[in-house]
Amino acid sequence: MLTHRLGLLSLLVSSVSASYVQYQLCDPASSRVPVPPPQQQLPGISSLSASIETADDGHQHLAWVIDLLIGDEHHCDRQVSNVTVDFTVETLTGTARYEHHVLTTCKPVHQGRYTMVNASSTLVTQDLGRLSPLSTFHSDIYLASAATGDGLVCLQANITPALRPTVSSTLRWAPFGLFLFILAVGILRSCFDRPIRLTADDESDEEARSARPVLPHVGDCLQYLQFIFLTGSLSLWYPGFYRPAVSMLNWYSLFLTGPITHGHVYPGSADGIFEINGTYVGTHGFDLMHQIVGTPATMTTWTNLVIAMVVVVASAAALLECTRLAAPRIGETDMAAQAIVMNHGFQHRVNRVLRVVLSYFTMPLIALSCYQITYAALLPGYHTSLAVLLIVIIIAAFAWLVRQIPARSLGLLVFDSKRYQQVSASTSSDQHGKAFIVVLFVLAFIRGAAVGGLQITPLVQLPMLIACELVLLACILGFQAYPAWSVGTISALSRVVTLALMVAFVPGVADIHVKSAIGYAILLIHSTMLFCGFLGPAVYHLVVLCARHLNASRPEVYGLRELRRRQVSRTDLNRAYVDSPSPAGPDANISGARTPLSNRTLGRPTSTNTQRLETPQMPASHYFRSPRPSSVRSKDSVDLRSKVGSTTQTVSSSSSRGPPRAISPLVNTSVTFGAIVEPKNDSPSYDTIRVVQLLDEINRPRSTANGRGKGVQGGTAEQWIAAAVRANATAKLVCTSWGAQSSREDTDEMPRDPLIGLVGKPSAGKSTTLNSLTDATSKVGNFPFTTIDPQRAIGYLQIPCACARHGVSERCKPNYGSCVEGTRSVPIELLDVAGLVPGAHQGKGLGNKFLDDLRHADALIHVVDASGTVDAEGKETRGYDPSVDIAWLRSEIVAWIKGNLWEKWGSIRRRHVAIKATAVETLQNQFSGYGSTATVVARALDRLGVREPLEEWDEAMVDRVVNAFTDEKFPTVIALNKIDHPDADKNISKIAKMQNPDTIAVCSAISEIFLRKMAKQGYIKYTEGSEFVDTREDLIEQGDPTGGGLKELDEKNRNRIENLKDMVLYRFGSTGVNQVLSKAAGLLGLVPVFPVRNTATFSSGASDSKAVFRDCVLVKKNSTVGDVARKVMGDAPVAFVEGIGGTRVSEDDLVSVGKHDILSFKVGRA
């Protein structure tokens, strides 16, 4: 549309405010207005200026100011006073053409330093209507004489209106708010990891199930924002609106306008347009970005970047130091652990700060520093030297970090994937992980060098960046670094697509319409990636996190991410044992084989930290019936005439922590005691065996001060207690030798210490787990049925000792196990049985042997290969679902028990009717071979709420009863082993959603064995059950010039230990093996009780002995003082029991941690 308007030029022409516009002469081939012949054009153009003002109605008004050189001062009176101005405004939506007849003025201007010439000034204004928020337009301006029609000049220019305040604020603060939100969510997820998914449609979300590094997605988001800004600084011909739009992201690349602002500072936008002067300072992309952002000159901008980097370094160092001083675990009360945390050396702190800088700011630092080198001929030598020095420092810091810490640890902040956050013995896997992390940092360096160092060669700049992204995608696919639709993969694809689209911005490739369309498309891709690729997942994770914390009905520990963040602190038995009822129930005898406790030299190595038992609170009725009362009462004397074999037996704990102990022959004894505990039945009970051992201890001659020996029969109460405790321990040893049988007529289970069995398929890591729990030497290997014969060993349950409560830790000398700074290691027996395969109940593999061995256990630890690299039969594979193992292994146990029962169900039912027995009595007769008791059977029936008579039960009911009995008799901890494997995380996440989290523990048995081996050989200082490992170098940095006497590590072992520190110990808080045993103890509901001689001094031996708390026994939760008396004293006569302060306690009082758990039993008649 052609419009004609007449404008009068008044004296206001000289006062119009307009900004410089870069222009060129019209191209006849593309101009939309006439182009005068060269001989008709005026001598030159003084300047072209423009301004855009927004009226009250929202319309934009364009004003052109054109100054033309017309000759010397004598030509002013002959100038053309009336001109026709014909110009176009060409946007993406179309082209508008305007024509104006205006008056011009003549004024003298300087040309050069001494020459005065005349210039004709022309002002044209035009209402452009409402322009789009992000717009740019191209104009062709044709001036001709109004009188003759001769053309004077033709100019072309691009105008970019300044961003409106609302648009500018949106582009500035929306990404900033997005980044702060992602940062906040990352901090929350790092502190409070998500335990479980609340929706059922997340199976395909591989990325969400992956292990999260520190501040997940924060590094990806920051680097993407830097990429948007720096790729907007390339030396390409962008549409005018593109650079202003991305310039609002200058903060993330430390491309700042301050604090130093001396010298020339670019205005950015002025008079309603972006003032870009490419004539005097060149047209490099960084130069144009300087002008649009409004920063000082190049030198000052680089100086501001260095200052900002120093601030970032100082802030990171201060934040890390505050985190270190604040004790990294919420609820940490272990002073020894805090001391180790606070002893990190200076080098360790420098490593962390450099890791932050290189992870987040490598690209902008290299880009702007390399850009200084391109101006080396124009800038001062010292400035260029400083830029080169900064680049060298960055390279040296990266090389130093690669040598000092594992490459996978270096990538902790930027590599948001589970793939290589592991400790693997595979050399190829380790090399792949290291190579990918190095690739990430090298590509960031190359990107920065391409953006800043290739500004003068844009045709090389863009292909170089595209090549970097293609290499990254190839590495992702080759190393399988990210899941298919993870944030890392999608952001890499987004960068490739946008860089490919930028080919249209190469000079001469596309016109303004195509460039504008592609510019909008690129901005749309970036916006979609930021809000859908980063903000969307962050919102989702925050909602899940909030839902878990707001849902008070869910257990405290619910899934994988909580299981992986166990507190590294002392075991809290107040919480684990008191608040959480045991599935075993109060009336169940602690069944299984007897614990072979070794002599006093058998103790666990020093440990200052143990795992906290994270057992959620649940109502007691969920697990068991109310306890039946028991009593210790005086009764007429009972003649005990049981005979026990007198064969000497030697019991080995299969542990390197103590030598085997020879058991003295048991003498056949017949003695009558007065006022002893009544046996539970007419046949000899376990109490009888204890008394026989007690007699052996009492009648055995002992050395006295004068060298003579005498018996202690009828001795003092103190002698009774000491002898009873010794006899109790000895009886345990006798009864726990494999296959040992007592000569008793009845098979009713006798009170004894628990036996925990390790079960699982072949090659799942059972023997390795046993070795890690006990330091035993069970045969291990990657072939089926490594274990054929059952392996027994002593494990150590770590509990808080009573000595810590009473401030006598330095005098605590346990008879068995150890006590270090208030953490007591109580021996507990473990059993590793043969591997189980599908069909074991039918005799497949070693099934019958496995199931027969299994019946001795009180609780089970099911070792599951979480890596999925071994199939159901123990053969190597890949991608196997380990959750299947949990289901079929339990089904094999159920099928075995049911098969034995159902095979003779007809005769069982007939006998039941004939003798008019109860269901509990009949089933106990059948289940006694599994180590069951009537209490366990009754509890199983109570769980089902069975009301039908036994003779009416069909096969379905029998199946239900067997399932309930299996749950009661064999409470099982699921030990998810091999957490260091790359495929473990997704499998653990799936299992965590399917199983009760109270029964799940994650561990890396091979890592624990490796650390103990290195500690035993004197290469490291390792605090078991914690994340703390110190090498010789660590101790030297902490101020010990001798390095603690540790040996020097070679490069291979040093790298492996660093991998363990960052990828296992840091992520999980420990190797997890201690928590496996603690979980099993929690299921059994064990409470530690400390028998002492004197409740004032806590001594257990002679009156002048300084040792305290020599003995500790484990009893069931909800046990009474009377139950403890029978367990400790056997059938010895107990007159009364004293608690703390010498106060007498009732036999019906319940024992718990901190209440009635320190007892003194006074022997004699009541």
Strand proportion, as a percent range, falls in 15-25%
- Computed structural class: alpha+beta
Mean pLDDT level: 72
According to DSSP, the number of beta strands is 30
| End-to-end gap | 119 Å
Oligomeric state as shown: single chain
Per DSSP, the total helix count is 33
Q: Name the shape in a single word.
A: elongated
| Relative helix content | 25-40%
Cα gyration radius (Å): 42 Å
Reported for the largest beta sheet, the result is: 7 strands, mixed
Unreliable runs, pLDDT <50, ≥5 residues? Answer: 1-15, 194-212, 327-344, 417-427, 552-721, 724-751, 776-788
Biased composition (Low complexity): 646-656
Keywords: GTP-binding, Membrane, Nucleotide-binding, Signal, Transmembrane, Transmembrane helix
InterPro entries: Beta-grasp_dom_sf (IPR012675), G_OBG (IPR031167), GTP-bd (IPR006073), P-loop_NTPase (IPR027417), TRP_C (IPR010308), YGR210-like_G4 (IPR013646)
Organism: Verticillium dahliae (Verticillium wilt)
